[in-house]
Automatic annotation (TrEMBL):
Organism: Penicillium malachiteum
Keywords: Signal
Pfam families documented for this protein: ECM10 (PF21203)
Superkingdom field: Eukaryota
Protein's name according to its UniProt entry: ER membrane protein complex subunit 10
Cleavable signal peptide: 1-21
């Protein structure tokens, strides 16, 4: 009787362990420390995200520049800022922005940016952007060189007459062998 509720609680515990959360901060250039903009949870496997809370910044001067980002830990620094610089009007305009969270191959956020959104004003959308592998070089392909070690010379392209001399020959033969005048009629 308690088995379905225990199973549901266990699944909820697993899902919450897989989903990661992160605080997105905004930092006006004139202030000493950042403030909380949004708290998001995301699942890097399914690329689903959810906005847990959003605190819109006060609109003191819409031309003011602010930093949008987060703190992340690296091997050399336990608290390193990663983000981008935007105008405050991007957050307080008529349309709510889309907060883009850029994921590294290790499925952790390495960068935060804003994008224009067509959603009505209010709460912004959260988008996860995963990195895709770039073009791979074709390795172990032999390099063709001439006997002297230089690149082989390209043959020059043939002219029109060199390509289609046989068509001109056929036209000439047909013209020469064509019927003569009509003297015998």
């Amino acid at each position: 009787m308690y088995l379905p509720s225990l199973l549901g609680a266990f699944l909820l515990l697993i899902v919450s362990a897989i989903a990661e959360s992160s605080d997105i901060l905004y930092w006006p250039l004139g202030t000493a420390k950042p403030s909380l903009l949004a708290r998001v949870t995301y699942d890097p496997i399914s690329l689903k995200s959810e906005l847990v809370s959003y605190h819109a910044p006060s609109e003191s001067n819409s031309d003011e520049l602010i930093r949008i980002g987060l703190y992340k830990s690296t091997a050399s620094n336990s608290k390193q800022w990663a983000g981008s610089l935007v105008s405050l009007s991007a957050l307080t305009g008529e349309n709510a922005p889309a907060i883009r969270l850029h994921l590294a191959p290790s499925n952790e956020i390495y960068h935060v940016s804003l994008a224009a959104s067509k959603a009505p004003s209010g709460t912004p959308q959260v988008e996860l952007v995963s990195t895709e592998p770039g073009a791979q070089p074709h390795l172990n392909r032999p390099i063709v060189v001439g006997p002297d070690g230089q690149n082989p010379e390209q043959e020059p392209e043939k002219t029109f007459f060199q390509k289609y001399w046989w068509v001109l020959l056929i036209l000439t033969v047909l013209t020469m062998s064509g019927g003569g005048g009509g003297e015998g009629q």
